[in-house]
User: Which sequence fits this backbone?
């Protein structure tokens, strides 16, 4: 599973990082870091990552087909 | 326009006073009819279930906001130029001017002050013991939001009435909406005067907007609209969430005990309150091109109604949706909307509601209902008007 992050759309609400701290984090400037950019999300974090994509309030996260 | 399809028909008026006061049975009836239901009174397709509401909110190219999200043509015309009523690049540009001030990280600087004010509000209420829960719920947003937006002191006494009226006017053109019109226009006049006289408070969000207008990033006449854009949704909605929380914890003492035993449940409790009694009932979208939704072909130019309050009680999405349980994962609730128009102020709303719950948990042993609550009559806002409570000190 790969996830695309639309950084222009991201407003740093941080709900993804609450749901999947292993996958997403926000720095002090509210810039989102996606820890598996260009790689597959490891199996053990997949379900948390899906929930994170699902709760993004501005739909900046997408699971790639 | 002949927008009617062969979708099942619902004849009752979900905007009648009776339906506003007792809204959930109507939503249940709509959900039972199907995923797309024709409201014969408003002549729009309502989407009462979670999946279709979410799909429409996420597909902002097919289901657009530029034709307005209200249910009457006057409001859809008056609201042009707001963030709420725009699409694509226009929407992104307007939202960019202020959304960065509203994210949880940006709000962190305010957190200590908000906690302190919540503590003061709750201490005063506990000392009085018998309170109107709506008054208690109003105190914190009214002490936080006007400063944040930057309204001058002069005129603030009208803000709450104006903001409520702005929402009422987004419903169908019923008696409620007509009655709200003078207040909505009053708010517009006031906002224009504030922008013209440059009387916004220094360092506020409104001040940012004024600077954006000076630098040509927004048009001067957009400025007043954008200020209203962020004022109107920031009062009643949060007051709704806080007062619904008070009522729900008064009537579910076992849930209150859970929250007292483990205050780390508070962020999810906020989601569950917003799921259970969604502050905004519904907004509409215009169908930009012929499209199919859950088997119904919706013609271009017709309007769909995204019923947040119903989606959040949809049994196809939630186990026991009519049970209030702060332990369920309610984070995917749609009460703040979702997608490109997702509530920009939800960080602030969550912060205020959480601060009130933390202050209550620390100072109140239990909340008791001491009278029959009354719902406010508003087309769009689902909130109590009166909520007699006793706060029993810890």
Assistant:
């Amino acid at each position: 599973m790969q996830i695309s992050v639309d950084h222009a759309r991201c407003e740093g609400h941080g709900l993804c990082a609450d749901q999947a701290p292993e996958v997403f984090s926000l720095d002090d400037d509210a810039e989102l870091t996606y820890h598996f950019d260009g790689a597959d999300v490891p199996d053990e974090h997949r379900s948390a990552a899906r929930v994170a994509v699902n709760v993004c309030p501005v739909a900046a996260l997408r699971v790639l087909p | 326009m002949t927008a009617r399809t062969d979708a099942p028909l619902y004849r009752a008026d979900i905007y009648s006073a009776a339906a506003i006061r007792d809204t959930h049975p109507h939503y249940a009836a709509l959900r039972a009819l199907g995923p797309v239901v024709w409201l014969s009174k408003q002549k729009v397709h309502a989407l009462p279930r979670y999946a279709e509401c979410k799909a429409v909110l996420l597909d902002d190219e097919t289901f657009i906001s530029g034709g307005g999200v209200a249910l009457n043509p006057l409001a859809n015309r008056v609201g042009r130029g707001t963030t709420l009523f725009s699409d694509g690049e226009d929407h992104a540009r307007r939202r960019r001017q202020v959304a960065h001030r509203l994210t949880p990280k940006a709000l962190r600087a305010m957190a200590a002050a908000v906690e302190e004010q919540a503590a003061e509000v709750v201490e005063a209420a506990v000392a009085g013991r018998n309170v109107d829960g709506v008054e208690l719920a109003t105190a914190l947003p009214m002490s936080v939001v006007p400063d944040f937006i930057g309204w001058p002191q002069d005129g603030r006494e009208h803000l709450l009435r104006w903001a409520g009226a702005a929402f009422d006017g987004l419903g169908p053109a019923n008696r409620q909406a007509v009655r709200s019109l003078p207040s909505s226009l009053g708010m517009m006049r006031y906002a224009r005067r504030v922008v013209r006289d440059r009387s916004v408070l220094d360092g506020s969000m409104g001040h940012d907007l004024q600077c954006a207008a000076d630098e040509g990033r927004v048009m001067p006449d957009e400025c007043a609209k954008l200020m209203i854009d962020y004022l109107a949704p920031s009062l009643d909605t949060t007051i709704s969430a806080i007062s619904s929380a008070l009522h729900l914890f008064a009537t579910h003492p076992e849930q209150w005990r859970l929250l007292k035993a483990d205050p780390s449940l508070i962020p999810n409790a906020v989601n569950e309150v917003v799921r259970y009694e969604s502050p905004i009932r519904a907004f509409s979208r215009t169908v930009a091109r012929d499209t199919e939704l859950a088997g119904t072909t919706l013609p271009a130019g017709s309007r769909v109604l995204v019923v947040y309050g119903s989606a959040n009680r949809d049994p196809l999405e939630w186990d026991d949706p009519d049970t209030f349980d702060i332990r369920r994962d309610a984070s995917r609730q749609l009460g703040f909307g979702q997608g490109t128009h997702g509530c920009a102020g939800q960080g602030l709303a969550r912060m205020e509601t959480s601060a009130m719950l933390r202050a209550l948990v620390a100072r109140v042993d239990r909340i008791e209902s001491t009278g029959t609550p009354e719902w406010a009559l508003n087309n769009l806002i689902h909130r109590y008007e009166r909520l007699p409570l006793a706060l029993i000190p810890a």
